[in-house]
């Protein structure tokens, strides 16, 4: 009994952890390109799920609805950059972060008007029969989330290291002026980072909706937890974001299971405080070098 | 000055033309939360009030005079609610007021109406609104205590002596947890597992696993609001828990059943009258209004009727009934008549007010329904 109970907490924690991790991935891309922490990330997740739900309700096939939802969310990401972030370029980074908080409130408000306050679901991609693992059960969709998130991390890491866009992204994050001097179209690259980040968020939204359901305000908590995961894993590292998410998720589930649900959220933040005391740049964050 | 003369002339003309005593309308005030976080409560209330005031006027108004609804949106904010309360009694000179949607904002408004001696019928659930009784304050929704009474009575009947609570940490969940703990104690029912969940949690498996592994649980009571209730039922099914599942009135919506993905099957839900109006017997005095309102709301909005709109329906019904019986729209007379309301079938229950009871309905107007093939079945 004790083992199956532990396994159940672990599975639940991993499921939630991968959800946080998937959401956290989007943070890293925009941060890498512009050092902005985009707090509208949670709303992108919500939009991914919502657009898909409404595409399907309009009679589109699942896949078409999902692709349209991802494209639309990416477009909104680019619009966010072009109309809110870019006009304020030159402002300190913290001002840009505040703009993203404003954008998140705006998107949430519009979503409330457009979709209402109700909540929606998507069918699970892997069926509904729970998988039994030594007395503990896992939802089939959890495995879809795990595989999907791992694929996103892999693709993202590959893109950052192997493609021109990825390298340009990293260059832009290191020194904007210098990268412009070597011929990188910084405006395009940063806009691209918002699009990629929105795509990651929308995919995460579509993957997690069968588990968590989706409503206009689901992004708030997800963004907060995902932000905690990113801080834990180290800003700007895709793998770090994922591992951070897992640590937060499992920490929460274990606290809820063995101590009390009341301390669940606190537990996640205690983990972060402790880790950040020992590793101020996060578990996988590189130290920041300032060249004089 | 000129304007006054003109208005008087107009009034006189109308009096002659309409053959009524005065053209001055009967003014009923309302403050609801049409926007902001409590919009899901206030929006259906506003739709209902506008529609039924219009209908009152089509049927000749009250006391032979037209009825004017002075409606304000407090944007789910207690300060704003109080401002509008003051405006209603000082500028609009209303006979009675309906509102507001939330307990906190209602409490903020009460002293205004107490000082002005104008009756208020609240649409909020909190028991603090009518306990202790304030002579000028009434309300229409069930309290969480009634919901818990209803469920605990059933637990006693079925000899479920050891039960588990699974409640949300939001306002509704907290209140349900407190009231149900008290009601359980009163009836000698032991709560052997007491778990909570956050309003936006995406997975409740750890809490449910603990309940599942607690030996001797006869039934699980789930209380809260919105999306997490559906997640609880999904996880309930996934974990293969066989213990009877009970839900508070927060789950009495079609969305809950649809989104729980089969997990709601066989769950017992404490449902208000409106949910099962069409299943009541033909001779039930509560049936006609509930069925009519259900249909009217659907025609108006294209959506299923909500209990929150029903509370507003009843508030307006109580006030217009009181004005008719008092044959006066003087606030003091309306108050006295409200308190004397007897056997008035509303869409929330049968209202019987008294000096000690300013809610007038009890747990008998809550129905235990079972989810069968995704439909409510009254058993």
TrEMBL record, chain B:
Entry's transmembrane regions:
none
Signal keyword on record = yes
Return the CDD domains for the record: PBP1_ABC_RPA1789-like
Which residue stretches, if any, does this entry annotate as coiled coil?
none
State the signal peptide span. 1-22
Some GO term, biological process aspect, for this entry: which one? amino acid transport
List, for all copies, the residue spans of the domain called Leucine-binding protein: 25-372
Q: Which UniProt keywords apply?
A: Amino-acid transport, Signal, Transport
Family stated for the protein in its record:
Belongs to the leucine-binding protein family.
Protein name, please?
Answer: ABC transporter substrate-binding protein
Which organism was this protein described from?
Pseudosulfitobacter pseudonitzschiae
Q: What is the lineage of its organism?
A: Bacteria, Pseudomonadati, Pseudomonadota, Alphaproteobacteria, Rhodobacterales
